[in-house]
Amino acid sequence: MPYSPSVLNNALEAVGNTPLIRLDKIAEQEGLQCNLLGKVEYTSAGGSVKDRIAKRMVEEAEKDNKLIPGQSVVIEPTSGNTDKGYSVIITMPNKMSLEKEAALRALGAEVVRTPTEAAWDSPDSHIGVALKLQREIPGGIILDQYRNLNNPLAHELTTGPEIIDAVTSTPSTTAKPSSEKVDVLVAGAGTGGTITGISRAIKKTHNRDCIVVGVDPKGSILACPDTLNVEGAGSLYIVEGIGYDFIPDVLSRDTADVNSWIKTDDEESFEAVRKLMRLEGLLVGGSSGSALSGALRWLKSAEGKCIAEKKGANVVVLLADGIRNYMSKPWFLKMALEAEPSPLAKRISDILKESPSQVQTDSETLAEGIKTRTQPNVTNRPDAPDEVTRK
């Protein structure tokens, strides 16, 4: 549904309709002539691109009488999702952030943690545990975002058209030229539903020549051809929400849908997050950094250089969620501690140097808070050393 200025009936009506924002400062810093645009999904009601598929999968299951209010229990293996008033059990790997778990519990969901290192087909994985719970709990149902066709369809029917409408309704001007079409789409791949669905929307109804670039972390096997996945094979990566050790059914690896792939690592992804925050004021999560770093690397490649140098070409980068899901993660806390002070820092310190000792003018209060940070030790959240800081 299009954005409505009137009062909404519920939070579900606030899912989607997210802004497409110019990333001009980053484009200028990188020497790009094209338009770099970010599709900012953290403004959706639940805070991420996953809102769209959760809403559609649940509503379609209701239409098919697969979900029965008061009886069904939704069980989903995921890195953090949403629900619609049903009893919900979420199974997620230990590496997923504490904020995601806390938010899900606040919404009334039960959360079960599983070993990050467990292979997808292991009974100990988040998928294996979800299947076991489904077998044992009356009314248990897995909507299965990895196979459910409503996953990519949600993006084909909403995210894609929103991007197309934003680009085509923004006229080209002398100051801000535009091809008035989506020339390139760059998105990370987890289940693959997002990139597959948006690609189909753009190529079917808008620009069949749009170049779609998938971003996959090193250690994952989603990129195509498979030779791209050799470097870092089997290694763990910290970034959440993208990459897998199996190929989900909803991900199209057909080159007609996803034309090219870029592999990224944690370090460049988190550096791109910092750029989006400091230069563009966008409080995005780690996978958004992966998407941006992948886009910049592709634009500097032999394949992408012609787009990078083309004034008016529109390159859309999917920014999947926000930083508030990751504020306890070591990579973000390290970024906060190492942030360069502004030119005002010394002046503030000089003004307050005679103030009581309780007044802090540097990062020591933050550092102490990080040092003493604790995590809840509950039965279904094993205290596992999955969250590590890379030097």
From TrEMBL:
Q: InterPro entries per the record?
A: Cys_Synth/Cystath_Beta-Synth (IPR050214), P-phosphate_BS (IPR001216), TrpB-like_PALP (IPR001926), TrpB-like_PALP_sf (IPR036052)
Q: Where is this region: Disordered?
A: 351-391
Domain (Tryptophan synthase beta chain-like PALP) spans 13-320
Q: Which Enzyme Commission number(s) are on file for it?
A: 4.2.1.22
Biased composition, Polar residues: where in the chain? Answer: 355-364
GO-annotated biological processes:
cysteine biosynthetic process from serine
Q: Which cofactor does it need?
A: pyridoxal 5'-phosphate
Catalysed reaction, written as an equation: L-homocysteine + L-serine = L,L-cystathionine + H2O
Its keywords, alphabetically, are:
Pyridoxal phosphate
Q: What sort of enzyme, by top EC class, is this?
A: lyase
Q: Where is the signal peptide?
A: none
Q: Which Pfam families match?
A: PALP
- Give the pathway: Amino-acid biosynthesis; L-cysteine biosynthesis; L-cysteine from L-homocysteine and L-serine: step 1/2
User: Belongs to which family?
Assistant: Belongs to the cysteine synthase/cystathionine beta-synthase family.
- What is the name of the protein in this document? cystathionine beta-synthase
